[in-house]
């Protein structure tokens, strides 16, 4: 019985050892919008940036954990009785943790086309009111937010390109009295370029 349990435990480890393992440092741009939920507050996404690393473990089907540091910018305009009260840019610095799953639709030596999707979690590090007009700070935002991400990956030898979209599941704002009624969520578009390091053997 002990021998059977030992074999059962070693089989998954053997499979993991034979799987491809790649490290993918990446950098790129983001465009983060907040969904409109209050007639007196208007949001408009602008360009931000991100840098981080993904890890791909598996063959045709794979898991893709990763961590990214980013700065996202949103233009905000508040109004009252159709008159603009304040207008400015809010910059949020965050750390994003990913746990994605993917599948290589095209799997060749020269070119890979991948689809991936899964949950991510953003940890809010800081908030900067660029023009000091809006008056929001880190306390007006939730400290973390859950998201669902999806995207495509294009691998060409050493290089990788990934367009993606992230749908926020959590409210952006905290329960502070001045923002508690705004139920906006994040909608983030991303585009990264990076490098592939590691095992690129095709085992399928």
Protein model, in words:
- The protein is mainly beta and 204 residues long.
- Helices cover 8% and strands 64% of the residues.
- It is built from one helix and nine strands; from the N terminus they run H-E-E-E-E-E-E-E-E-E.
- It has one helix at residues 2-18, and strands at residues 21-34, 41-58, 61-80, 83-107, 112-129, 144-156, 159-168, 186-195, 197-198.
- Strands 1-2-3-4-5-6-7-8 form an eight-stranded antiparallel barrel.
- Strand 2 and strand 3 form a beta hairpin.
- The chain is elongated.
- The protein starts with a helix and ends in a 6-residue tail after the last strand.
Write a concise keyword list for the protein shown above:
8% helix; elongated; disordered N terminus; mainly beta; 204 residues; 64% strand
| Overall spatial form | elongated
Strand order, biggest sheet?
Answer: 1-2-3-4-5-6-7-8
- Report the portion of residues in β strands: over 45%
The succession of helices and strands, N to C, reads HEEEEEEEEE
C-alpha termini separation: 33 Å
Low-confidence stretches: 1-17
Number of helices: 1
Rounded Rg: 21 Å
Based on secondary structure, the structural category is mainly beta
The number of E-state strands comes to 9
- Sheet with the most strands, sense and barrel status: 8 strands, antiparallel, barrel
Mean pLDDT: 86
Helical fraction:
under 10%
Topology of helices and strands:
Elements: H1 2-18, E1 21-34, E2 41-58, E3 61-80, E4 83-107, E5 112-129, E6 144-156, E7 159-168, E8 186-195, E9 197-198
Antiparallel strand pairs: 1-2, 1-8, 1-9, 2-3, 3-4, 4-5, 5-6, 6-7, 7-8
């Amino acid at each position: 019985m002990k021998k059977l349990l030992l074999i059962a435990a070693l089989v998954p480890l053997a499979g993991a050892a034979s799987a491809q393992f790649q490290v993918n440092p990446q950098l790129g741009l983001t465009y983060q919008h907040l969904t409109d939920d209050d007639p007196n507050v208007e949001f408009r996404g602008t360009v931000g940036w991100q840098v981080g690393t993904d890890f791909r473990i598996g063959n045709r089907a794979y898991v893709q954990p990763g961590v990214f540091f980013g700065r996202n910018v949103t233009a905000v305009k508040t109004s009252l009785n159709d008159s603009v009260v304040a207008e400015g840019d809010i910059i949020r610095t965050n750390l994003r943790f990913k746990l994605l799953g993917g599948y290589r639709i095209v799997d060749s030596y020269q070119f890979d086309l991948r689809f991936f999707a899964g949950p991510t979690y953003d940890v809010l590090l800081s908030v900067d009111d660029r023009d000091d007009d809006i008056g929001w700070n880190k306390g007006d935002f939730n400290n973390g937010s859950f998201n669902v991400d999806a995207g495509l990956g294009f691998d060409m030898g050493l290089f990788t390109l990934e367009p993606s979209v992230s749908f926020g599941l959590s409210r952006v704002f905290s329960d502070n009295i001045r923002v508690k009624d705004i139920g906006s969520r994040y909608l983030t578009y991303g585009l990264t370029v990076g490098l592939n390091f590691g095992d690129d053997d095709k085992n399928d």
